[in-house]
Specification:
Number of helices: 16
Strand content: under 5%
Number of strands: 2
Radius of gyration: 21 Å
Strand order of the largest sheet: 1-2
Number of domains: 2
Largest sheet: 2 strands, antiparallel
Structural class: mainly alpha
CATH class of the largest domain: Mainly Alpha
Helix content: over 70%
Distance between the termini: 32 Å
Shape: globular
CATH topology of the largest domain: Growth Hormone, Chain: A
């Protein structure tokens, strides 16, 4: 029995590794590549928003298909096989932003549902989800890090890592998409060997409102949760600037073809602070954890704005990712889990996901294209970034600071401040 469980953990860990290797391989350098092939058109945020549009639809897909009709591992396999072909097609489109948007949206409609599927597959095939899931999910972060090192052919910008002979500055080409497409093909085939995960909700009534988390709207009757949800939406507007524009910014101002591996240090930081979240949660409480996370975003963008020519400051802004992500998102997930009654916890997490990675970042991607055009940013040259960073990055810094002030003044939830992060109703 122990050998069987060990085999399942290994297969699930490899699943997580491949899942996030694929995303990390092309999504991080995509902004720089788009800036080159569509120079001067301010479409980076528009094309990045395909993941957000797909994220809004993904809960419906998983709820209607994987939860009710087919085994999750088989659905995962089919989606990644189709996704491999679509992503390869994306790598070939250079003539039209609109055409690339359509193909990229089709790809993310396949990929985004699999983020929920891998969680479902894991939860149903481990003995103790609370203990084993974080250890298995960690391999997803490792996969994202390895993808950055492979694309950059560098170990965090310190040592060469020549695994792609004959390819120079791979991050500025379509190669990362082709690499991710090949990995998706392999992963799609591998998915059919994963532990069987039959649908749990087969035969149950379908409720679109529940699938979207709308039955959790009653939580908005609590002013504290309403403030938290609103600020979660607002603070994800500047988050879109980081995902779409940090790679071309860091590449052209500081790190060149080593940028993907340097940005992987953000995920290393994420691992470190993830381990520290329970400690800080007990010491600081929900409110201070969330405020620190939002202020870290403010500091990151302020560094990008004021010191674009100083690689050490750009690097520090990247490494702040651990605090930015863990202190806000992980703490927010813990807060939501504690705040929601047991019967709507899944819906509550789904609702927060829609407000953040869905609606918040969708708005953010539209705002960053508008702002890049408004400020006249030339994101294709070092000179353009050095002269335009102050104007461009001060907007996300200002939004993050404003949201943190609103949250600090309006959030009042003393009943939950003292609770430990592992307590449940």
């Amino acid at each position: 029995m122990s050998a069987t469980l060990s085999s399942a953990r290994f297969r699930l860990s490899l699943m997580m590794f491949l899942q996030f290797f694929i995303w990390g391989a092309f999504f991080v350098p995509l902004g720089g590549y788009l800036g080159k092939i569509f120079a001067g058109q301010n479409v980076v945020g528009h094309i990045y928003s395909t993941s957000n549009w797909a994220g809004l639809i993904a809960p419906l897909f998983v709820g209607l298909i994987a939860d009710r009709f087919f085994n999750a591992e088989r659905v995962n396999g089919v989606l990644h096989l189709v996704g491999a072909a679509l992503l390869w097609k994306c790598s070939l489109v250079t003539e039209s932003p609109g055409l690339l948007f359509s193909w990229m949206l089709a790809y993310f409609l396949c990929y985004m549902p699999t983020l929920a599927l891998v969680n479902t597959i894991t939860f149903q095939n481990v003995a103790n989800a609370g203990d084993e899931f974080p250890k298995i999910r960690l391999w997803g972060t490792i996969g994202w890090i390895v993808a950055g090192l492979v694309v950059a052919e560098s170990l965090f910008g310190l040592l060469p890592f020549p695994v792609l002979p004959g390819i120079e500055n791979a991050g500025g080409t379509a190669f990362p998409m082709k690499l991710a497409a090949v990995a998706s093909l392999i992963y799609g085939i591998y998915s059919f060997s994963l532990p069987a995960t039959p649908p749990n909700a087969k035969g149950t009534p379908v409720s679109v409102a529940k699938l979207l988390g709308f039955d959790a709207l009653r939580l908005f009757k609590d002013p504290a949760f309403a403030v938290f949800a609103l600020c979660s939406f607002l603070v994800c507007i500047p988050l879109a600037f980081y995902y779409a524009m940090t790679y071309p910014f860091a590449e052209l101002t500081s790190f060149g073809d080593k940028t993907a591996s340097v940005m992987a240090l953000g995920q290393v930081s994420e691992i470190v602070f993830m381990a520290l979240v329970p400690f800080f949660f007990r010491k600081l409480g929900v409110k201070m954890m969330l405020i620190v996370g939002m202020l870290a975003w403010t500091l990151r963008y302020a560094l990008f704005a004021m010191a674009p020519s100083v690689p050490a400051m750009v690097l520090f802004g990247i490494i702040l990712h651990g605090i930015c992500y863990d202190f806000f998102f992980v703490t927010g997930q813990l807060y939501t889990d504690r705040k929601a009654p047991r019967e709507i916890r899944a819906s509550a997490q789904g609702l927060i996901g829609l407000l953040t990675y869905g609606a918040g970042m969708l708005v953010g991607n539209q705002v960053l294209d508008w702002w890049a055009g408004r400020t006249g940013l030339d994101a294709t040259t070092r000179e353009g970034w050095l002269s335009g960073s102050m104007a461009f990055w001060h907007l996300p810094a200002g939004i993050a600071l404003g949201v943190s002030v609103i949250f600090a003044l309006a959030f009042r939830d003393r009943a939950n401040e003292a609770a430990a992060p592992t307590e449940r109703e």
